[in-house]
Amino acid sequence: QVQLQESGPGLVKPSETLSLTCTVSGGSITSYYWSWIRQPAGKGLEWLGRIYYSGSSDYNPSLKSRLTLSIDTSKNQFSLKLNSVTAADTAVYYCARESARPGVDYWGQGTLVTVSS
Amino acid sequence: DIVMTQSPDSLAVSLGERATINCKSSQSVLYSSNNKNYLAWYQQKPGQPPKLLIYWASTRESGVPDRFSGSGSGTDFTLTISGLQAEDVAVYYCQHYYTTPATFGQGTRLEIK
Predict the structure, then answer these.
(1) Which residues pair with A59 in a beta bridge?
(2) CB-CB contact of B55 with A102 (8 Å)
(3) Cα dist. B82→A84, A103, B21, B75, B109 in Å?
(4) What backbone phi and psi angles, to 5 degrees, belong to A88?
(5) Whole-angstrom distance, CA of residue A62 vs CA of residue A49
(6) What local confidence, expressed as pLDDT, does residue B27 receive?
(7) N or C: where does chain B have the smaller number of CB atoms within 10 Å of the terminal CB?
(8) Looking at the complex, does the CB of residue A42 fall below 8 Å from at least one CB of chain B?
(9) What is the average pLDDT value for chain B, to the nearest integer?
């Protein structure tokens, strides 16, 4: 059973960089697309971007200039860095696996990141 | 970006009755090369990540009860829950995978009447 677990600071100051890592267990990261999706409290889901095990990536244009995704196949991990954060970036961040059929079939439990001084 | 619009924003349905949620995309999400609609449906309960219910617009994910069904093609899609059960109370989202960004609908909150 594939499991994903997000890790990283729960509090980030405005203008700083939000960094999260997702550790994949129960399966290899060397396949599929690996995604980040976020959800502000009480609001809907926003697709941030995805990265393939080869390193190729796609970003949401609304964030592209601030967002960087990376992957470390040796550690079965992938990561997100979002710079110049504001309060609008406060959300639960999910890491996820995009299956070969369209759709996310495995999700992390999500981690709340609050942007505040 | 493809905009996904769900309707209604919320609905209340009696136990055992049918719930219907609509999703409209701003452009077709049907790939002519394989005749597949790149559209998925999710269920999200409070405090949990979303759960994949339907992919290819109408294919049920393994383990999903058969009271959940998806239909539609091109730009108009429907999620139907036949015989609503108490555990179906949740927010439901559609998402396209035709291009990136793979945007979601705004969500539909389903409650028991």
Answers:
(1) A49
(2) yes
(3) 46, 22, 12, 23, 16
(4) -65, -15
(5) 10
(6) 97
(7) C
(8) no
(9) 97
